[in-house]
Amino acid sequence: MTNVLLFLNKGFETMEFSPFMDVCGWARNDYVVDINVTTAGFKPVVSSTFNVDVMVDKVIDEININDFDALAIPGGFEEYGFYQEAYSDGFLNLIRQFHDADKLIATICVGALPVGKSGILKGKNATTYHLKDGYRQTELKTFGANIVNEPIVFDDNVITSYCPQTAAHVAFKMLGILINKETEQTVKHAMGY
User: Fold this and answer.
1) Across 148-193, where does the E strand assignment appear?
2) What sign for the dihedral angle of Cα 42, 43, 45, 50?
């Protein structure tokens, strides 16, 4: 079984959360792919951007990274407190643990910023939210990342992307890396992409 840990920081964006669930769900349900998604957060119920509450499967203290093959990180809004948890020592340490164990890390939009702050993107190609004069890309650059202004960037087992529009494509890419390219294309086609 392939296991993905989908970590929801306070203020996460629902549009960036749901593709991981849907893409893996279609693969499991329609194509009998042995993949599971476990949601996690700092609290049992995490409030998203625009105040949609999601009950998670695990809280951060219950996570054993040996149980997972990948970490998925949706971005979120500063106004809803995203960086309070995303930039916390506990979350940054979790990112480092996944990286040190050579496990895939998939991010959408500003989900790349805590990965950058963790230090694992120094000297690596990456991207993040590119609009509003690229101010979030400038922030990611301060963490040592080489900014590539492309929709999706993959370097050193980390997927980064530059806006919510890329969300489904990041989830498909994650599926392709974890399972295989054929499954990625099959599920993509079945979902109309």
Assistant:
1) 152-155, 158-161
2) negative
